[in-house]
Amino acid sequence: MHRDSGARVRPAQRWSARLALAAGLAAVVILLLFAGIRSIALLGAGLAGLAVSAASLWWALTLRGIGRLLAFTLAAVAPLAVLVLYAWAELLWVVLVSLGLWALGVSVGGAALSADREGSGDSGDGEPAGPPETRTAPPKHPFLIMNPRSGGGKVGKFHLKEKAEALDADVLLLDTAHQQDVVALAEKAVEDGADLLGVAGGDGTQALVAGVAARHGIPFMVISAGTRNHFALDLGLDRDDPSTCLDALADGVELRVDIGFIGERAFVNNASFGTYAAVVQSPAYRDDKVRTVLRTLPDLLTHRRGPRLAVQAADTAIDGPQAVLVSNNPYRMGDLAGLGRREVLDSGALGVLGVNVDNAAQAAELLAGRHAPGLTALTAQEVVIDADEPEIEAGVDGEALTLPTPVRCTIRPRALRVRVPRHRPGAPRTRAPMDWRRLRKLALS
Could you tell me if 219 and 138 are in contact, meaning their C-beta atoms sit under 8 angstroms apart? Predict the structure, then answer.
């Protein structure tokens, strides 16, 4: 990261960086001092235990019957065997102290780097913290679609219909007893003069109505009344009290964000293909998720069932992946806490994540994270998913679909005008990925 001249390092950041470096160094010194040459063997045994556990989990997912039971047992026993080995060598306390110090260094160092990133005003990759806000006049004829069953009944619990109508919004409650075409309802509202479309519902419904708003160039409003509210999270909206989203009607600002499309169908979060999409299509999945996953995964992961996918993204081809995720802007992958989060919504690029694991050894290699050979992570403006079958199953913003091949995913940069409250919690920032060299520079600054 290049620090500009106006960014200052606070003393707390500097000392946090120094503490992190000291803890990391102490972890290595203690291991070498008390274990000596055996420290290499200890490290090797620990890595071997992790690799065996990862490989065993692969076997557990691809086998059935007694083979699956033995694989799950091995996955649980492997790390315990490593701990027994450390105790037998009378070095368990050394390993635990060293791991504790290393964890302290990573935790404190990550906090220092995150504070440093916020102080410099970027996301850590040279990107602005979020799309710029524009003050615009309140809508005169807002039209809101609300699903009374979404999120376990949040529309009724938070009296969203009554509060929206008090702000002069036209509200349509979906009839949950019958299937309704929300796209047609939104198009009719625009035809009747609506100058803002909004949804209190799940991300799938949000995406369909957002597509209508983008096509007509009018603002779209998200009301976080769904179950997961991933789009609302990345917009920085309050997911605990969806009624606060209605503040945008009277005192709001406008953001310009990207929107993804599969053909002409919009998506605001992601589209998944392959294993996960096939599992959720099963009629039994809703009633018994765990049993359905364990029953269907062996054939899907080993290509005995389902189409063989072929993905083309920019200049990269991914042949035969078990799972593909195409997202409206890339998800963070630098740390576990960042998974499922997007730093920005206006980068103008789709995120692509492909997983291709054919055996236990490749499953163990996934421990390397984004650098694993079986994991492909990249960005592109267009992604084409083809298959050896005329149709493939897909999960689009949580909605299960069957699509004709090839499937073409595109992104329209800054095509969606989103109206949000001027005062809102803001998207929680993910921790910066650990970088010991950056940490050393910060400590010496």
Answer: no
**What is the reported pTM?**
0.75
Q: How far apart are CA 23 and CA 108, in angstroms?
A: 9
Q: Tokens for 258, please give them.
A: 């990207």
What CA–CA distances, in Å, run from 339 to 121, 297, 323? 22, 23, 16
Contacts of 76 (CB under 8 A, 6+ apart): none
Q: What is the pLDDT along the chain (445 residues), one digit of tens a residue?
A: 444 444 566 777 888 888 888 888 888 888 887 777 777 777 788 888 888 888 887 777 777 788 888 888 988 888 888 888 888 888 888 888 888 988 888 888 887 777 655 554 444 444 445 678 889 999 999 999 999 998 889 999 999 999 999 999 999 999 888 888 999 999 999 999 999 999 999 888 999 999 999 999 999 999 999 888 889 989 989 989 999 999 999 999 999 999 999 999 999 999 989 877 766 666 655 555 566 555 555 655 565 567 889 999 988 999 988 888 899 999 876 544 445 678 889 999 999 988 877 766 666 666 555 666 677 889 999 999 999 899 998 989 888 889 999 999 999 999 999 999 998 887 556 666 677 888 888 888 7
- Cβ atoms of 84 and 90 closer than 8 Å: no
Residues 393 and 400: beta-carbon distance below 8 Å? yes
Tokens, residue 107: 């935790």
Distance CA(249)–CA(424), nearest Å, equals 13
Residues for the chain: how many in total? 445
* 382 CA to centre of own chain: 19
